[in-house]
Amino acid sequence: MKHYKIFISTYPFGFYDSEPMRILEEAGLEIFTNPLKRKLTPLEVAEFAKDVDGIIAGTEDLTPLIQKNSKLKIISRVGIGLDSVPLQLCKDRRIAVAYTPDAVTMAVVELTIGLMVTLTRKVVLAHQELRTGGWSRFTGKRLGESTIGIIGAGRVGMNVIRILSEFKPKKILINDLKDKTKEVASILESRKIEFQFVEKEEIYGNADLISLHVPLTSKTKNLIGRKEFDLFQKEAFLINTARGGIVDESDLYEALIQKRIAGAAIDVFETEPYKGNLIELDNIILTEHMGSCSYDCRLLMERGSAEEIIRFFSGKELLNPVPEEEYQNQIV
C-alpha cells in the first residue's frame, strides 16, 4: 500500500483493545493519535490533521479541517452521528465519508433502559441521601405502569421498544418519519402491549417518560424547548441519549428548576465536555456521552472505522459509506 498518513482524533482509541491500532499499522499506514488525550476543538483537529490523507474522527466539528486540508481523502467516523461532518462540503471536495451505524446500537439501548429505571425510581437521589445519613426510601412509578413515548424508531429506538416490551408498559406512543407499524406490531402484539404512532405533541402531553432517538439535523435542532415542555405532564421524565442540541439546554434548565417536569437524564450535550448549569440540579442525571462506551461496542466502532480506512486506501469498496439520505438530512 502506498504511504498514507492517518490522524485519529477521537480519544480513547485502541485503549481497551489494541486490535484497531494493530490492523492500521499492519496495513502500512502512518498513524498519528490525539496528543492531548481529550476531545479536541475543531481548530485543534484542523491543526493536528492539516496534512493527513485520512482521519478517524469522533464527534468533533470537521469543517475547519476540511477547509484547511486540501489533500484529505476520507473521513471515517467512530460512531453513527454525522452532525459534526459537513457532508455537502465533503461531496464538493470529493472526500469519502464512512461511519459505523450498527456498532453502537445495543450499548446505547442498554444505557437508555438503565437511565429509565434509575431516573423514575430515583436511584441517584437515594444514593446521595444515604451518603449523608438520610433514609427516605423514595418511591417511583414502574415502567410497567407507565405510558412511554419514543421519538425516533430507528436502530436504537426499535431496540428500546423491544426491550421495553419485557417490562410490559401500559402503552407505548411512537413518533417516526416512516411507517413502522409492522415492525413494532411484530414485537408488541404477541405481548398484548398497546401502542400507537402519533404526532410528537401527543407524546409530550400524555407520556410519563419520553425517550429521544433521532439524529441531530436542521429539522431536529432544539426539537424540544419551552413550548414543548409546557405540554409535558408535571410528572413526566425526559431522556436524551441521542445527540446534544436536540433539547434546548437553557429551556430544560428552566423546566427542571420550575418543576414543570419531574426530571431528566441527559447523556449528550451541545458542547462537550459539559460544564453548564444543569449540574446544579438534583432532578437530573448527567452522564458523559457514554452511550457507546461498552467494551464490545467500542471495539466494533474502532475496528469498523479502521477497516474502512484500510479498504479505501486499498482501492476496495466501503462497507458503510454514508448514504445519500444522510446528505439530504443536512440540507436546511
UniProtKB/TrEMBL annotation:
InterPro entries: D-isomer_2-hydroxyacid_DH, D-isomer_2_OHA_DH_cat_dom, D-isomer_DH_NAD-bd, NAD(P)-bd_dom_sf. Keywords: Oxidoreductase. Residues 19-322 form the D-isomer specific 2-hydroxyacid dehydrogenase catalytic domain. Pfam families: 2-Hacid_dh, 2-Hacid_dh_C. It comes from the Bacteria. Residues 113-291 form the D-isomer specific 2-hydroxyacid dehydrogenase NAD-binding domain. Belongs to the D-isomer specific 2-hydroxyacid dehydrogenase family. This is Phosphoglycerate dehydrogenase. The lineage of its organism: Bacteria, Pseudomonadati, Spirochaetota, Spirochaetia, Leptospirales.
